[in-house]
Design a protein that fits this description.
904 residues; seven-stranded mixed sheet; five-stranded mixed sheet; 31 strands; AldOxase/xan_DH_MoCoBD2; Molybdopterin-dependent oxidoreductase; metal-binding; Ald_Oxase/xanthine_DH-like; 2Fe-2S-bd
Amino acid sequence: MSVIVNGKSVDAAPRPGQCLRTFLRDTGHFGVKKGCDAGDCGACTVLLDGEPVHSCLIPAFRADGKAVTTVEGLATDEGLHPMQQAFLDAQAFQCGFCTAGMIVTCASLNQAQKKDLGAALKGNLCRCTGYRAIEDALLGRTHIEEVAAGEAFGRSLPAPAGPELVQGQARYTFDTAIDGLLYIKLLRSPHAHARIIGIDRAAALAVPGVHAVLTHEDAPAVPFSTARHEQAWMDPADTRVLDDVVRFVGQKVAAVVADSEAAAEEGCRRLVVDYAILPAIVDPAAATAFGAPIIHAGRSTEHRIADVNRNIVAETHGEFGDVAAALGSAAVTYEGTFTTQRVQHAALETHGGLAWLDGEGVLNVRSSTQVPFLTRRALAEIFALAPDKVRVFCERVGGGFGGKQEMFVEDILALAALKTGRPVKLEFTREEQFIATSTRHPMRVTVKAGADRDGKLTALQLDVLSNTGAYGNHAGPVLFHACGESISVYNCPNKKVDGIAVYTNTVPAGAYRGYGLPQTTFAVEAAIDELALQLGIDPFEMRRRNIVRPGDPMLAPPGSGHSDVLYGSYGLDQCLDLVERAMAEATPTPELSDEWLTGDGIALTMIDTVPPDGHIADATISLHHDGAFTLTVGTAEFGNGTSTVHRQIAATVLGTTVDRIALKQSDTAHGGHDTGAYGSTGTFVAGRATQAAAEALAAELKGLAAQRWSVAPADCVIADDAISCGARRLSFKELATVSGTPLAASGHSQGTPRSVAFNVQGFRVAVNKHTGVIEILRSVQAADAGRVANPMQCRGQIEGGVAQALGAALYEEIVIDDTGRVVNPRFRDYHLPSYADVPRTQVLFAATNDAIGPLGAKSMSESPYNPVAAALGNALRAATGIRFTSVPFKPDRLFPRLQEMFGD
């Protein structure tokens, strides 16, 4: 077959059944991405004879004699394609995995199509941006600022990878070619609970190209957790690389390693497994009953499981004051039970990785991970390897949202590489992402609250049942976090918490943006509104009377045992004021018939900027002979923007510009340590390490100049790529030459003390009382992010967080049947927000400066997600008079209550 790809003839024979996407990638066109395998996401969009197509749906042979243009082919010798330049100017990307396909689609639009972007972009999904920046690119808007040396921090500077992203040149996990590569496919359990009696490998090994079949007999029996934390106590040791007991439908049973994915898949089909079916349970409430099937029989508290016999992996209980008495004497009370569903992270780059042994016997693992250093530690422990014999690194990561704070593929990759001695690849399909990784923890939250006649809270009580699924990764920390800041943001003399996280025979839950707070905030903020309604107090005023303020203790029983959370800065009062003013502004409102009911709702949240008990980051920075710098950090870039902010921090401290700072990151071979990019720490913790390293190097440079001039270092000023003292000046290039030895410095951050960030969300909604359809008329979020490191980028994080949370609040839901099987494991059955679904959110920032965070900044990556469902629920209550207590707020679920209230 002969096809013209980006103006060049490619002559190659596609494999039988091969799609155009894999054909193009096989020929080195890595800008064509895999996000769904089914034409649902648009990441693989190319032009076929000038028309945009999803290349995963086009058989490769159909391109014979045709012209294909990928994102790499849009630019010309004169420069970038106008659409590539527009995306660069508007910084219309975050993780960037969808960007290549999105640009190709946008470049093909005519003027008529641009007038209806909802229809024009329905085939391209973005999980990060919230689409506002993409719309801005199409409208020709730019948000980038020009700044002088030393003034980078606090300004809207572009991401360093931007030019590569818009041209499809940024390299993600699988954007490389490796000779001699073998492919791994996993056989997965069809049963929710079973013991493996035996596995017959003979037929699988007879498949041409199959090199190995790996089972629990080949894997270490070391128990561990897929969750990655700095401290092991946070998670139970309840998982094995390959187990002889399967505990959910989709759990890996065996790995087939072969010359091709097709051979590996055929090998999986030919494996014969003898299962002894065990009793299964999918209801978390029933799982705690005495006599219920024990899911992790044989484990104990030594494995950090609270109560194996009742399937309770973690629990928290505590009270201060007397809640029952306070409720009994309160002027008004409210009690309600709220439920939240399973949600998939849906990062467009699925889990996967490559592994190989190098010439020195070092195990190299290149994966899509948020936690390379913690994964290296786990692999070394599981496989009894010296830490210096394991290297884990990531290139650019295509979205994470907490889902890649797990070790779902690296253990199998390591096992296969060690057993075969060959480089190996494992890439999850979209279905595997749904059935075999992790979800948000579904929770049942009962809240009780009381207040006096003046609107002062007198009692707050939470009873939480969290479903952690078959394994306890993140079960305890999510539960503790959910029961923490959701009520400690309010002053109340009497508080009580009872929470348990329970095993069930369902797909595991894990870390997800917000880490438990969206679930409990949904209940707590509803209770605050209901008390305000009974008292006739405005919802803003009700919160002002009860929120914590500087000097107040931030208390939630039973307490975390960690007292290092401080008010590094405080802007919650500003956030309330900003949202109240914005919601009161006159805005255009669509004409609505009397079938529509409208209402406003708000919610607030507080979040600790760092997890408790240790989050470590190291950084180093060195000066080169040309006067430029290299900054090395361990934290990963997956759309969180840390690669931009770290350069801004270093450039500001060193009096230079960001283009003079080269960045190396997320590779254990670089030395040092970094706990990982999770828990709102990429800027707050790792950024402090960068600041410390830059300040140390600045001091060294000043000392060198002072010695040369025989003056005090304090008399020297660092600015404009030089050290000055009066009229004397030494450029960085000259200093590098003068020193005669390499100039470098290191910085370290322990992640303590911690600060708090605040967010307030406001919505105005219209609800059709006869159909349950919801239209969002206004969306406003105010954030206290300290000194905002990069306003454009931070605004994008908030817009993306709101969009993602709206998906969960309105329609996203993993559905599991009575047998524990996920019934909607693909995008077309799981509604992700597209451009047409997402309202434009007005983003406002409180004016604060955090005393703890780097250069006054603090986190703002996950907290924007937290108040969204709660604010939307309060808006629905205001519009309809009905308190809806379960998400998602799908029309068919609202309809029965609306019909009951308003009739046909």
